[in-house]
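During the reporting period the student researcher (J.K.) took over the structure-prediction task from the postdoctoral fellow and processed the backlog of single-chain submissions. One of the processed entries is reproduced below for the supervisory committee.
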Amino acid sequence: MSVSSQRSLGIQKNKLLRYKLIKDLYQKHKTEDIPTTVVWRKYIYPVYPISRTTLYEVLCTPITIELKKIEELSQKMAS
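J.K. obtained the following structure tokens:
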């Protein structure tokens, strides 16, 4: 596999790992009486300066499934 495709897989993997950290931080502070926007403003934005739209994208992304796909592709490339 070419260097550019390996690089793009690495970029995608790092993005998903960052999404996982953001999602963990969200779940740590989110309770049913605290709105998502408050969690974003008080806890997520100071650490990860992302927009609310990006936060919603993070929360909807199937992170573990995508990471498994990338891991399988990288193993196929190594073989």
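The committee noted the following: The chain has a mean pLDDT of 93.
J.K. will present the remaining backlog at the next meeting.
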